[in-house]
Amino acid sequence: MRLAPAIACDDVNHRHSRGPLANERLAAAPENPLAQLFRPSADRRIRLVLWGLPVGLTLVGGVGYALSRSGWSTGVGWSPAQPIPFSHDHHVGGAGLDCRYCHETVERAAFAGLPATETCMHCHAHLFPDAPLLAPVRDSWADDRPIRWQRVHDLPDFVYFDHSIHVHEGVACETCHGRVDRMPRIRQVADLSMKWCLDCHRDPTPHLRPRDAVFVMGWRPEPDAPPVILEDETHVSCSECHR
Amino acid sequence: MTRGGPDERWIDGDHDVAAINDCVVDTVQSPRTRNVWLVALAAAALGLGALALAVFGVFWWYVGIWGVRTPVYWGIAITNFVWWVGIAHAGTLISAILLLANQTWRRSINRFAEAMTLFAIACAGMFPLLHLGRPEFFYWLLPYPNTYGYWPQFLSPLVWDFFAVATYGMVSLVFWYVGLVPDLATMRDRSTGLRARVYGVFALGWRGSARHWERHQFAYLLLAGLATTLVVSVHTVVSFDFAVAQLPGWHATVFPPYFVAGAIFSGFALVLTLLIPVRVWLGLRDLITDRHLDQCAKLMLTAGLVVAYGYAAELYFGWYSGDPHERELLASHLHGRSAPLFWTVIGLNVALPQSLWWRAARRSTAWLFVLSIGVNLGMWLERWLIVITSLEHGLLPTTGGHYWPTFWDWLTLAGTFGFFAFFMLLFIRFVPVIAMSELRELVGDRRPEGA
Questions:
Q1: Which of A123, B106, B340, B361 lies 20 to 30 A from A17 at CA?
Q2: Which regions span the lipid bilayer (chain B) (predicted)?
């Protein structure tokens, strides 16, 4: 494509070009028939635009793709400030508390449950009863006002998710929430995208455990143990989650 | 068409190459039509504003503002969609199929019909997208790498539709543009200042060298071949939206050819409706002669006969299937609730076009104009009959329903008329409405040396 020399740059070429659509500018334009419409740089600029469009669009697409999977968009690694710097590392990894001690409705409700202040006070009425760090717990106890924990794993409101069925079918806490027993401050581990849900729903077997291993952290299957197979068929229809 | 007879000549008067350019270029630059054009453009801009309002309404309140209710999920939005896609078929038929069939008369009207195609496709595409319920997520129809872990449902004709219409729009645009390049160069050479530079950019440095022409013709033929398959495929896929479903009134094997013929039928009708006034307004009666209108009318009659066959086949197979639900719908069409609509459609699309068997009717501009408007209306009502009446009827009396469009439905339809008119007017004012480069070949050897 050569945009610049519209006419009469080189005589030979021009004479050849007097086909059915010979340049009428020669005959028609009254003032200066040899005036050039475009400067020689026009070609270069147009090429730049034409190349820039696909390259630019590809770049935008690539950046969008990367951003949509980054923690900035999905919230992986997100760890909001809590009213009390509660450490799962200390309570689960160190003291060896079972998940269900605090998240007590996980086996029978959609919501796993957050501990009532009373649950904390079971121990902390006696253990470190004067620690300044625990002042908000004692205030909550005294004023009869719940502690305002910040939710970390927050699914969209248009998704119906039920903890109990997952736990009953052999999906472990660790499968979605990671090694909570090593987290001084709880953070989001999985990206919670719909693809992440579907990857497991389409092929659950590699993610399932025996019932007695669901609340265990750092569990590894026995090398010769048979895989846990979901007896039900897979649940992947839209209304499974979008009710 | 007889060879060598008076019908062979497709241009009236003594025009040579330069005169044809003058004729066509003048339509673009003429001060004569300027004031009327401005008034018409202002009126069309009102329509465009109406469309903007209608689209805003759908984005703000969603499709609940339309008249669609269970069980009539598809209201006139889908009627309009099918109608506009149909309109869009004439352009490609005239450009591609008639090009391959070596019909020289197409050269006077193909540019105009292709422009119609482009803007009609744009109008058509709006409706299914607005109809999505959440139109801002229209891109979910595209198979792009998303975080949802799913792709579009490729088993659904609605997804085929998206690809068929998008492909058709793109190929039509490229075809139209490639054909336009030599004419844009003519415009460039006949303009000055900024206009010349704008035309110059879009003319891609066209010099009219033999090599340019050779490559241009090759590309044009290739695109014509591609576009030819699309003429058939697009409305076939649109018909699958219905034919694949089990609903009485939709579930018929005759739908694909019947829809394609209907599309060409309505497309030619709109070509006539628009060309008849436009050729007078722009002073192009020497180039778009009564014989051109005659040819369009013949093709319209042919397509209309296939449509009539479609109606007959639908009725016959509805009866022959023995299916009680199909037969109930037929009874409703013939002498029941939907009979007034059905017989209006038959009158407009089957009975009236039979007049085109007579040469006198085909040569009467006034009759063609009236008839073409009748066919446009008839085809729109036909799509109402297919889309809405079938849904209203349903399978059981208890699943029936009633539909009537709301203000917003009508506003969207009126808005697309405004949109279409607005861009057609821009096209008329800035782009040569006739393919000069192709038309010049028809007078190439003729020299007006004193007759």
A1: B106
A2: 36-61, 81-100, 112-134, 154-178, 218-238, 258-278, 299-320, 340-358, 365-387, 407-431
Do the chains contact at B192 and A29, CB–CB below 8 Å?
yes
Does the beta carbon of A68 lie under 8 angstroms from any beta carbon of chain B?
yes
H, E, C per residue of chain B: CCCCCHHHCCCCCCCCHHHHHHHHHHHHHCCCCHHHHHHHHHHHHHHHHHHHHHHHHHHHHHHHHCCCECCECCCHHHHHHHHHHHHCHHHHHHHHHHHHCCCHHHHHCHHHHHHHHHHHHHHHHHHHHHCCCCHHHHHHHCCCCCCCCCCCCCCCHHHHHHHHHHHHHHHHHHHHHHHHHHHHHHHHHCCCHHHHHHHHHHCCCCCCCHHHHHHHHHHHHHHHHHHHHHHHHHHHHHHHHHHCCCCCCCCCCCHHHHHHHHHHHHHHHHHHHHHHHHHHHCCCCCCCCHHHHHHHHHHHHHHHHHHHHHHHHHHHHHHHCCCHHHHHHHHHHHHCCCHHHHHHHHHHHHHHHHHHHCHHHHHCHHHHHHHHHHHHHHHHHHHHHHHHHHHHHCCCHHHCCCCCCCHHHHHHHHHHHHHHHHHHHHHHHHCCCCCHHHHHHHHCCCCCCCC
Flag if A7 and B440 touch (Cβ within 8 Å): no
Of A19, A21, A37, the CB nearest to B197: A37
Residues 20..59 of A with a Cβ closer than 8 Å to B: which? Answer: 20-25, 28-29, 37-38, 43, 46
Rounded distance between C-alpha atoms, residue A208 and residue A200, angstroms:
9
Tens digits of residue pLDDT in B200-231: 999 988 988 999 999 999 999 999 988 888 88
Which of B125, B97, B102 has the alpha carbon at shortest distance from B230? Answer: B97
Q: Are B433 and B111 in contact (CB under 8 A)?
A: yes
Judge whether B74 lies within some domain.
yes
Best of B189, B195, B201, B212 to substitute, by most chain A Cβ atoms within 10 angstroms, is B189
Reported ipTM: the value is 0.71
Identity at A95, one-letter amino acid code? A
- pTM higher than 0.80 for the full model? yes
Judged by a CB distance cut-off of 8 A, whether residue A60 touches chain B is no
Q: Count of domains in chain B?
A: 1
A69 → chain B, closest CA residue: B147
**Is the residue at B265 inside a domain?**
yes
CA distance B99 to B119: 21
Please classify residue B116 by burial: count the beta carbons closer than 10 Å to its beta carbon, then call 0-12 exposed, 13-18 middle and 19+ buried: buried
- pLDDT tens, position by position, B155-195: 989 899 999 999 999 999 999 999 999 999 999 988 888 88
* pLDDT tens string B258-271: 999 999 999 999 99
Is B349 near chain A, with CB under 8 Å? no
Residue A69: helix, strand or coil by DSSP? helix
Residue of A nearest to B440 (CA): A20
Tokens of B359: 């040469």
Domain that holds residue B204: 15-443
Kindly state the helix (H) or strand (E) to which residue A138 belongs, with its residue range: helix A135-143
Q: How far apart are CA B102 and CA B96, in angstroms?
A: 10
Q: Of B208, B268, B221, whose CA–CA distance to B21 is shortest?
A: B208
The distance of A59 to chain B (nearest Cα, Å) reads 15
Q: Running DSSP on this structure, what letter comes out for residue A134?
A: G
Please check whether residue A1 touches B, CB under 8 A.
yes
Q: Contacts of residue B197 in chain A, CB cutoff 8 Å?
A: 37-38
B104 domain residue, yes or no: yes
Whether residue B6 is contained in a domain is answered as no
